[in-house]
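Morning. Coffee machine broken again, so started the prediction first thing and wrote up yesterday's gels while waiting. Chain of 88 residues, entered below exactly as on the submission form.
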Amino acid sequence: METTAADILARIANDLAAGRTVCAATALKVFVFAPQNVKMLRAHGVEPFKIGTDGSLRMFEGWTKRAPRFVRISTSEGALLVRLTASD
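Came back before lunch.
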């Protein structure tokens, strides 16, 4: 069974709901989504991860002119472009 971007998003959502910290490591930077950070993002109406219009998994990276900026972290087929981990 192949893993899709939606499958990965569901696993991330489960980890965040369980209060775990989710980390996404690129070649240059590590993004940490701790429970308190996720709570702040959601208070602003932003989810830390989402599915893009092309079917790829997107991750919140920052703000551009008060709008959330997302970067692609998977292909539309579900192949991850980053290393994801979750910890308590």
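The chain has a mean pLDDT of 92. Going to sketch it on the whiteboard this afternoon.
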